[in-house]
Design goal:
Blueprint (H helix, E strand, L loop, with lengths): L2 H15 L17 E2 L7 E3 L4 H8 L32 E2 L8 H6 L6 E5 L20 H5 L12 E6 L4 E6 L4 E4 L2 E4 L2 H24 L3 H12 E4 L10 H6 L7 H7 L4 E8 L3 E10 L2 E10 L8
């Protein structure tokens, strides 16, 4: 693996170990089948050593010791293939909530058994104070771009089938675990537009059109670096209230469509190890803004 592929692999392995219960994803990868992308959105594609074992772990149901062994003749056995799923398991599939229409729609493009990481609000004792009111307009705030924002709303997404598995990190997480069950947030639309339509379906179609050559690789990389910006969690849902208030009624299809339109576009010009130089173009509240921003995480005094 080159440096970018190694970062992708290490990042996803670390995220899997942070799950509840933790998963050592590396042990599930059959030797010689691993393919690692240059970015965490495409992630790791592989053939599983035991697909049923991987599905059990992603579902929070670890196989118990001795499970799957053939009982001795004349004896009886109890099914101990999987332990009960912990109530706070990080990943959710349709098995946990088969009637959840929005969750079902989110798995529409998933091949095989799909799992998504649920974002969980921290307990009251660990919650930070609410952010101070922003000074200036949304236009001024948006001009700084979205790199290096403290709010991260990413989520693991896994697909398991007999012949092919994939695990990656969605840049726009949208499933929140609530006491009443899974809640799909408004960031769902940004996920569909950017990660499913733009950076998967459109990118792969364009890649096939251009062909497997140097130009094709540059086109794919260019699409991967572009993001449509919507009113979502990272920008405080800027402009969403005004757009919703302009909808006069459910029958006004044009205004409903406008509420779903993007409010900007950004391009990652230079990606450093822990930071990004980004070009941002926003159109918001009748005004337009074009800026360059540099954001991310920075080591103090060059320490590592």
């Amino acid at each position: 693996m080159d440096a970018s592929q190694q970062r992708t692999f290490d990042t996803i392995v670390a995220r899997c170990k942070d799950l509840i219960p933790p998963i050592d994803i590396a042990r599930h990868i059959k030797a010689g089948t691993r393919q690692v992308a240059n970015n965490t959105l495409d992630g790791i594609t592989f053939e599983a050593v035991d697909p049923d074992d991987l599905i059990a772990e992603l579902g929070g149901r670890m196989k118990l010791p001795g499970a799957g062994k053939t009982p001795a003749p004349g004896s009886f056995s109890i099914d101990t293939t999987r332990s009960p799923r912990p109530a706070n398991a990080s990943m959710i599939s349709m098995k946990e909530d088969p009637q959840h229409w929005a969750l079902k729609a989110s798995f529409g493009a998933t091949v095989g058994e799909g799992f998504r990481e649920q974002w969980r609000p921290p307990p009251p004792s660990l919650r930070i104070a609410p952010p101070l009111p922003r000074h200036g307009s949304d236009r001024v705030s948006l001009a700084f771009g979205e790199t290096g924002k403290r709010l991260t709303f990413t989520a693991l997404h896994a697909a398991v089938s007999r012949n092919k598995c994939n695990i990656h990190i969605d840049e726009r997480g949208f499933v929140v675990a609530m006491p009443e069950g899974a809640l799909v947030t408004p960031t769902f639309w940004g996920h569909i537009a950017n990660e499913l339509l733009l950076k998967t379906l459109f990118r792969d179609w364009l890649d096939g059109l251009v062909g497997d050559n140097v130009v094709g690789a540059l086109v794919v990389e260019a699409v991967n670096r572009i993001s449509l910006r919507f009113s979502d969690a990272e920008n405080g849902f800027a402009g969403l209230t005004e757009r919703v208030n302009r909808i006069s009624g459910i029958g006004d299809v044009r205004d409903i469509g406008k509420a779903l339109l993007p409010i900007g576009v950004s391009a990652d010009l230079v990606r450093l190890r822990n930071s990004t130089i980004q070009a941002n173009y926003y159109w918001h509240d009748g005004q337009q803004t074009l800026t360059l921003s540099w954001g991310g995480t920075f080591d103090k005094f060059g320490s590592k």
